[in-house]
Amino acid sequence: MQSRMEEGKDPAVRATPSRPFPLRLLQFFLVFLVIGLGASFLSMYMIRHFGIHNVALVQSTIKPCFELPVTIENWIRPSSGLLHSMNDTELFWRATFVPRVKNYPFERTPKIAFMFLTKGPLPMAPLWEKFFKGNERLYSIYVHSLPSYSADFPPSSVFHRRQIPSQVAEWGMMSMCDAERRLLANALLDISNEWFILVSESCIPLQNFSIVYRYISRSRYSFMGAVDEPGPYGRGRYDENMAPEINMSDWRKGSQWFEINRELAVKIVGDSTYYPKLKDFCLPHKCYVDEHYFQTMLTINAPRLLANRSLTFVDWSRGGAHPATFGKDDIKEEFFKKILQDQTCLYNNQPSSLCFLFARKFSPNALGPLLDIATKTLGI
Q1: Is 204 helix (H, G, I), strand (E, B) or coil?
Q2: Where would I find the H helices in the chain?
Q3: What are phi and psi of 224, to 5 degrees?
């Protein structure tokens, strides 16, 4: 009866014998064995054909991407290009690194960093090319232009790939000082830059490179005008909200175009005390910050290092908010004799007739005449 009941059960519910577990384990074992043997045969093939010493050599030359520099050259060699992804906060922090040991453990040739603050093209570039020619070890170039401008200098030009990451700079606004600090910070990344000159696209050299280098490198002072000027355009621009960091007695005015040494460049880039005061209380139509910020800050922090004059000649005799512009009709020998010979100033506390090394503002149509007289009149 029991066998008949079993025969009557639905075949779908009959118990089916399961596959033995040891067989499945054996299958996994065989798979791993095949993989292991394959890897072994591949290793023996590589060693046999390439040699164990070559394999070890390849392994020893593979270095992790985060490995730190191991030679002094990694720290002192300037980058071949100026483009980077640092924002201003990161750039300024990096640029203010100062060696505590003043004796350089390598041969260092001090250079002048020429910093061009421009909207776009450099119409006087051919004249500057003549000025720089033959002095490659003694200078470096940095160009801050509008971000929308893309320079097309040929590889043979001294301005080729010398643009730094830039932002919009507006006349009379703190963004103009931001651009100047940005130029200084990028130039400070090259440890060989010792002096820093700010010029514009309308600026020209008045002397040859040798005279400029000797004049700046032998000076005890940096050339930035910082005058305590009474009246509405000097003290009249001071705002009492700047105190106590900046008092009326500290307030100075001077030309935007300067030459400073490395010590002062680091002070400007690293400043966080005076910047917010000028940004908030030196506003356009009453106060033009590029005429006061660096001049006041350095007068407070390092007055002993300032010659208190600019190396760049400008003509304010025609009046107005901007200096005179010189065109092709102005470019005559008599014009430059007036600038170069009819001047008196102090150089290293001694009277001197050589006061200006640069001049502005020159229109693009002045380039041709300037190139014609550059050798005879300017010695370029």
Answers
A1: strand
A2: 2-7, 21-50, 52-61, 73-76, 88-95, 125-132, 174-188, 209-217, 262-270, 275-281, 293-301, 333-341, 367-373
A3: -140, 125
Residues 6+ apart with CB under 8 A from 206: 313, 336, 339, 340, 356, 357, 358, 359, 378
At 178, give phi and psi (nearest 5°).
-60, -40
Backbone angles phi, psi at 347, to 5 degrees: -130, 115
Query: Cβ atoms within 10 A of the Cβ of 255, count?
Result: 20
Q: What pLDDT does residue 11 have?
A: 45
Q: How many independent structural domains does the chain possess?
A: 1
Q: Taking a C-beta distance cutoff of 8 angstroms, is the pair 270, 92 a contact?
A: yes
Helix (H) or strand (E) holding 355: none
Q: Return phi, psi of residue 119, to 5°.
A: -80, -40
Is residue 194 included in any domain, yes or no?
A: yes
In the numeric block, which tokens belong to residue 34? 């095949």
Element (H, E) at 347: strand 345-347
| Residue owning tokens 């730094």 | 164
CA distances in angstroms from 194 to 130, 310, 326, listed in the order given: 22, 18, 32
Name every residue whose Cβ is closer than 8 Å to that of residue 23 and which is 6 or more positions away in sequence. Answer: none
Give domain status of residue 94, yes or no.
Answer: yes
Model pLDDT, residue 317: 80
pLDDT digits (tens, 9 = 90+) for 40-95: 666 665 555 555 444 444 444 445 555 555 677 777 777 767 888 899 999 999 99
Taking phi over 0 as left and psi of -120 to 50 as alpha, with beta for the rest, 319 belongs to left
In a domain, 207, yes or no: yes
Q: Which helix (H) or strand (E) holds 142?
A: strand 139-144
Compute the distance between CA of residue 265 and CA of residue 96 in angstroms, rounded to an integer.
9
pLDDT at 20: 52
The CATH number for 199's domain is 3.90.550
Helices and strands (DSSP H and E) totals, the chain: 13, 9
The Cα 47–Cα 258 span in angstroms is: 65
CA distance 93 to 269: 8
Helix (H), strand (E) at residue 115: strand 111-117
